[in-house]
Amino acid sequence: MTQFYDARGNIYGVVSPATLREAGIDLPANATECASSRKAWSKAAIALCCDWPEGQRPPNSKSHRSDGLLIGPFQNSPPFDVLIVNTDGTLAERSGNGLTIFSHALTEQALMPEQGARLSVHHDKGVALQTSVKPAKVEGVNGFWLDLGQPEFGADAVGAQNIESGEFNGRAVSHVKPLAQLDPTWNHSQFVRIGNPHCVTLLTDVDALPSNEQMRESPLSEGLTRIAYAMPTGEGDPCPAGVNLQWAVRESEQRIVARVFERGEGPTASSGTSASAVACAAWRVGWVDAGEVHVVMPGGTAPILLEEEHGELIGVRLFGTAQLMG
């Protein structure tokens, strides 16, 4: 019923709306109505598709067998509507790895045109977010370029409140008090919006990056959840709608190492939009130039293309690849 795919260690289930309805989930007829009514059906869909089968959950694994659920397509030809459901039942505005997986699934279903297509992610935080996807091959690997548009920077871009100013590498950044209270080295952050909100904390030592195992353990897990998740799961501080968290270190020229704690999910092996936000933040503080940037995460390395014009970033593209899990 639900097929699972892996994109650099980020795992999503893909299921059609018709399949969910046949299983007894009361899913509305179109993606817009699904998004506005998600509280009525999303947790049941996650339980049905993403819970571990009885007795099959591996030791020390995450509470669900995937990082989320992709519901779609709602059409047989482009543009394609899709819902990205986090395992806590909330809806995401965008997921780079999720849209890569969805594009791969569309290709397997012979629905993805050779010239690519536009994907429309419906959510309950505003208008549907559009992403243009184009099949491509990079270094012999088949995948997709995702056009994520122009990034925005700063506290206002993500709705952050009560933020202090700081400086890093001679550039203006933000001081996020709740993060610095968890670890005093987490005192320089850059807010980025790439359709969804991100807070990239900039570090100077790769050994200072938190591991996914550390981020799953108490009390760090609870502290990060309070920051990343909106109420009632978290506290939405400093972003009432929640924010995705990343930590980044410059490893070498045009190469950044990162860790990710996602709003609505927690620590993940990789994230496409998080990698894109990290690349943008690195450009903002002078760590990298425009052009190709590689962001290294536990699940793999994401190639990002940054386009600059007159000293401003005007475009971000992410290359993603996925595979069906056995």
Automatic annotation (TrEMBL):
GO terms for cellular component: cytosol. One of its GO terms (biological process) is lysine biosynthetic process via diaminopimelate. It comes from the Bacteria. The keyword Transport does not apply. Keywords: Isomerase. Belongs to the diaminopimelate epimerase family. This is Diaminopimelate epimerase. It comes from Pseudomonas jessenii.
